[in-house]
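REVIEWER CHECKLIST
Item 1: Sequence provided? yes
Item 2: Single chain? yes
Item 3: Sequence as submitted:
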Amino acid sequence: MAIVYVAYDGKWENNAYVDHKLKVLMVSMDKTCLQLQMQIAKSIGIEEEASKIRMLYNANLETSKGVEIENDSDVEMYLYLVKNEEEYKKCPIIVEIEETTIQYSEGSKDSVVALYVEEEQILTTTLVQKTKKRRFQEVEETETSSSSSSVWESLKREKENMEIITKGTSIEDLKENLIFESKEDLKEVLSMIAIKKKFQYRVPKSDKKRFMARCIDEKCEWYLSVRVYKNTTMYKVCTYKNVHTCSLEFSNPDHRQASSHLISKYIQNMLGDPKVEYKTNQVISDVKRVLGVTVNYQKAWRAMQNARDEVLGPASDSYGLLPSYCHMLKKNNPGSVTKIMKDSQNRFKFLFVAYGVSIEGWKHCRPVIVVDGTFLKAKHGGILFVACAKDGNNGIFPLAFGVGESENNEAWEWFFTSLKEAIGGREELCIVSDRHLSIANAIKKVYPEAHHGICMHHLKENLIKRYMVAGLHDLFFKAARAYRHSEFEKYMSEMSSLNPKIKDYLLEIGPGRWARCLYPRRRYNIQTSNIAESINSAVKEAREQPILKLLDELRKTFQNWFLERSKLAASTFYPVTTWAHKEMRDKLEKANCMEVEQLQTNTFNVKYNQKTFFVDLEKRTCTCRQFDLDEIPCSHAIAGIDKLYRNKYEYCSKWYDIMMYKNTYNGSLNPVGDKEDWNIPEDIKQEILLPPIYKPAAGRRKKQRYKSATETFKMSTKCGRCRRTGHNRKTCKFSPALHPYSKKHNTNEASTSCKAQSSPTAF
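Item 4: Structure as written out by the authors:
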């Protein structure tokens, strides 16, 4: 390979090319003149068929513009100089572009189809055109001289005698004079014919100019010879002897032409939807059913990887497109924040994304953030960081997310720093997470003003794992969810009676971080990090995709949520959200059974089940503390409100107001569009971002997390006699054939014995 500089879009001054633009290309040493022209045209963004490219390079001749590159020999000489001579290392190819023109005579209405055979000019007295692509182009025929007509007639006759096979074309068999666009297309078609006709071939000769194939049976007469068609990159079938005399011993189900690359063509349509899991064993069965070929597990797995790369693009390439994707994301979604961090070798390290609509919607949500991390299952691994909240309708509100190498102090600190820069701070802010030490360290450093609460589910798992005591599960949840301090102390005492160390362990962690009644700030009903884990579950399948596909699936998921919830908000006619309305409606029946004693204008004593609760509507408090902590009227408060014939909705917090809910989902998420339509600045386009270095663990890649020993799971037992579930053969009571030790057998014996003893006629 040689590094070639291309200068274009400039002007000549005293045999010097100035005010030009510059491109850098990697050019292989075996490039032809035509191929070099095509590569340059593609890189500088001009249409080959509409332009004429003239290539020169400056040989330090002050009396001329330079040496012109006109053929393959000139290209070979230039690349040699660039590669080996120091003074030519940075000698650019100067590109002059001339528009080609088509001149027409008057009075012509007929048309003709011209075939590009090789790079040549067809010059006539009234028609000038240079064709450079291997395709048929429809052009208008003009009134030309008799010599011009003969040229077009010659081209038409040549076109009628030729047939070009393009990529993806399926044919029954080969024949002589067929033309293929490339050698890869030829090999793909030939392999499919071999599989369908149940024969195998070998390739004794294959180079840049020819391709030969013979049957694997040396006695067989089947033979194929293909050569490069003139000076193009197309291949023409020259000789094809379609006669098989091979023995059946060379026919076996493991076909040598059924490569993983070929199989991948058949399964690409199965990998478009990430929510549909397509497994390797399904590939094996589908190939057997469709092609009649047996493939092993390794080949089927490689075919799946090839197909995934074709459909989704290589995982490594996704990282290179990440800066462009983030640019388009911010362009199409104003207010969005994206950040990418690289290491010293330009390798990906961290990514942060916060949508503009999420940043605006967060202002209308309760000030509680839930964070969590989950592992990615793609080729390069990594961790997905998620930050979310709850809206006024108790739904999950996506706030921000990020991708990093692992869950460590540096990663979480970078994520929280980026989050604070994007959304700022909030009064009475509370952050809920599991007990990961890196999260606690990052919150303490970045959000010192926030209260860090612990997910009670994760704490329960650790507690039960440490102290395996019956009944501990229910007692802990009752203590964590208790609204009143007296109830909390009651359940703590009961847990202490099971094991005194339990209470010491929980007090050491700090009850103010997990017990509702002891929170220094309101956490409302958000006591676990389940909402963050729900987002991880919603994109479970997308976590196996390359990073660009993962980001797009997250965007689609959040876009659907915003759309559905904006419709729900528009169709809600209560002054509060439907969730808040339902919460109060469920308490209404209980409130109607309470005895209310009014003390002052806004204070009441409410009696229920021999208990008395004091309600203050002005301060919005109740001694049950539900009204205080949830900011939704409890049943005692509802009873007092009904006593005054007031509107219950007015005593709900502003976070549950329907207008706040509408403002939460006021915006919409816009897609980034197709890559072909992206308008990216040059500085971003030239930014280098390499994939991270990831060393996968030995064995099969993990797709499921490791479950803790305390996680409950249901195990279905099936009886081997009656085939019913829920019991085994020994405890079966439905089968006529009894096990000698079954409960039914013993029960029948016992009942028979009792009847025999009580019967007067028994002996």
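Item 5: Key structural point noted by reviewer: The radius of gyration is 38 Å.
Item 6: Recommendation: ____
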